[in-house]
Design a protein that fits this description.
Blueprint lengths: L7 H4 L3 H4 L4 H6 L1 E9 L2 E6 L2 E5 L18 E4 L6 E4 L5 E5 L7 E6 L3 E7 L6 H14 L2 E7 L7 H9 L6 E4 L5 H4 L11 E5 L6 H9 L23 E5 L5 E4 L12 H7 L1 H7 L16 H8 L4 H26 L1
Parallel strand pairs: 8-9, 8-11, 9-10, 11-13
Antiparallel strand pairs: 1-2, 1-4, 1-12, 2-3, 4-5, 6-7, 12-13
Helix pairs in contact: 4-8, 8-9
GO molecular function, one term: metal ion binding
Subunit structure: Monomer. Associates with 30S ribosomal subunit, binds 16S rRNA.
InterPro entries: G_CP_dom, P-loop_NTPase, Ribosome_biogen_GTPase_RsgA, RsgA_GTPase_dom
């Protein structure tokens, strides 16, 4: 079935979006979902139609949000112009590459995010923590997908490392080339559901997408043997229809995901440290050599790890710096 043959419900339309459309708008506007973002245009699909539109909303100011992949729009009666972006359920964003003062929207209206990592030397707990912080910040359920299990004799060591990040975190191990293994992911890919893939280049996202879709339409590349690092293959942010009826956002690999406004997500992912910090003697404790530091006491007792402490402090420092930059920009 082509995406243009879908109903609004099959595209992900629900009461959240329906409630934002007035009776007058419903009489002449057409809802459409952003399926892909290209330079200079967006590809949209509505009930029984599809087309390309300008990414600029009629009457919007330069500071207004423009559509990103996964967004729902209202278009004009002739379906030639986007009129407004409907309120989002959630929005993934990051600090813009090369411009720490700006932000870049990644995707909107996601139901589940698959955090993809490979079982080789490119595996990184710190990177997974960053992705998880991003998911927690916007309130989207996360599932960790460990790929390339054929490259290791001990996949359980990778599973244990992931589960140490957060109790109860769902982890699936798959060989992305095996339809039977990938079928376990179908539970999150039902009709109208949207799943986003986050992971650095070369972890096997495109291979997983191809297997879930039952096609090889997305290019894949082999990893470099000397360091296990993959080459970037996804160049366009777009949605793919899955055989299970859902939609998948295959996003460009982001090896260095610079978080933006993620204080709540950091606090949730590192709740063991944030809870311990509440018991410090001083409210402004830097967790260095201060007396009565509950965080240092936890590390000394072995209930908290110094490695995780270092990653927590790095994310906290980055968030503090980003907040300061944002405040200076707004004051100007």
């Amino acid at each position: 079935m082509d995406s243009a043959d879908q109903t609004l419900e099959q595209l992900g339309w629900d009461a959240h979006f329906e409630s934002q459309v007035s009776a007058a708008e419903a009489a002449y506007c057409h809802p459409a979902r952003v399926m892909a973002v290209h330079r200079g245009q967006i590809a949209v699909t509505g009930a029984g139609w599809a087309g390309d539109l300008s990414p600029y909303i009629a009457g919007a100011t330069p500071s207004d949000d423009h559509p990103t992949v996964g967004d729902w729009l209202l278009t004009s009666a002739d379906r030639a112009q986007a009129l407004r972006v409907l309120g989002r359920k959630n929005l993934f964003k990051r600090r813009a590459p090369g411009d720490p003062r700006g932000e870049q929207m990644i995707a909107a209206n996601v139901d589940t995010v698959f955090l993809v990592a490979s079982c080789n030397q490119d595996f990184s707990v710190a990177r997974l923590e960053r992705y998880l912080v991003l998911a927690r910040e916007v309130g989207v359920d996360a599932v960790v997908i460990l790929t390339k299990i054929d490259l290791t004799d001990t996949p359980e060591t990778y599973v244990d490392a992931v589960r140490a990040i957060e109790p109860g975190l769902i982890v699936e191990t798959v060989d992305g080339r095996e339809p039977g293994a990938v079928a376990r992911l179908a539970a999150w890919c039902g009709i109208g559901k949207t799943v986003a893939f986050l992971g650095s280049s070369g972890v096997g996202k495109s291979t997983l997408v191809n297997t879930l879709r039952g096609s090889a339409s997305i290019a894949t590349q082999a990893i470099r043997e000397h360091d296990g690092t993959g080459r970037h293959t996804t160049t366009v942010r777009q949605m793919h229809r899955l055989d299970q009826g859902g939609w998948l956002l295959d996003l460009p690999g982001m090896r260095e995901l610079q978080l933006s406004d993620a204080a709540a997500g950091i606090a949730e992912v590192f709740d063991d440290f944030t809870l311990a910090a509440q018991d410090c003697r001083f409210s402004n404790c830097a967790h260095g050599g201060e007396p009565g530091c509950a965080v240092r006491a936890g590390i000394d007792a072995g209930t908290l790890t110094p490695e995780r402490f270092a990653r927590w402090r790095a994310l906290e420092a980055g968030e503090t710096a980003a907040t300061a930059r944002t405040s200076r920009r707004r004051s100007r």
